[in-house]
Amino acid sequence: MYCCYRIKNDILLHQVSAAMQVMLLPFVEVSFGKNVDADLRPDWTWYINGVSIHGELDRGTEGYRQARDRMHEYTKRRDFVLWVAPTQVRLDGLRERAKCIRSHALFKLADSETITDYAGHTIHLAEISDLLQGQGA
Predict the structure, then answer these.
(1) Comparing 14 with 1, which gets the higher pLDDT?
(2) Most buried among 52, 63, 129, 130, by the most CB within 10 A?
(3) Which residues, other chains included, contact 70 with Cβ-Cβ below 8 Å and sequence gap of 6+?
(4) What is the pLDDT of residues 57-75, one digit of tens each?
(5) CATH class assigned to 9-136
(6) If pLDDT is split at 50, 70 and 90, which confidence band does 44 have?
(7) Alpha carbons 62 and 111: distance in angstroms, whole number
(8) Three-class secondary structure assignment of the chain
(9) Residue boundaries of the structural domains of the chain
(10) How would you classify residue 49: left for phi > 0, otherwise alpha for psi between -120 and 50, otherwise beta?
């Protein structure tokens, strides 16, 4: 994976997996690594209509406590955050713990293009731009 800094070997798989998720919205500006918000440190950030959608790739290697701690960081912002999980069980577990960010949390299985909101309603990619326009107003 090419970027403007060296990726440590222990996070290379994570970064490559995150890059694959970014392909969902290939037509928008995206930032990775050291170019994302230094306080939140998401895996990536999409920029659509001047609003940010932060991406968090959860590979199931950490406990729910760490995920909940990450979610708490997003209570300080109103930007959308997309949580990507490897299995439906893990995705449901993340959703259950996301009450603190339910107004701006989105969820997706790693091998699916379907994005859902906190309530489990499907959000089509075309709708994300509309949601962001309404949020920025």
Answers:
(1) 14
(2) 52
(3) 56
(4) 898 888 999 999 999 999 9
(5) alpha beta
(6) confident
(7) 19
(8) CCCCCCCCHHHHHHHHHHHHHHCCCCCCEEEEHHHCCCCCCCCEEEEECCEEEEEEECCCCCCHHHHHHHHHHHHHCCCEEEEEECCHHHHHHHHHCCHHHCCCEEEEECCCCCEEECCCCEECHHHHHHHHHHHHC
(9) 9-136
(10) left
pTM of the predicted model, to two decimals?
Answer: 0.77
d(CA 57, CA 113): 14
Task: Match 């995150």 to its residue by tokens.
Answer: 18
Q: Enter the tokens of residue 13.
A: 């798989």
Pairing, β 115-117 against β 51-57: unpaired
Longest Cα–Cα distance of the chain, Å, equals: 42
Q: What type of residue sits at position 46?
A: W
Is 61 exposed, middle or buried, given 0-12, 13-18 or 19+ CB atoms closer than 10 A?
A: exposed
Give the Cα separation of 19 and 32 in Å (integer): 8
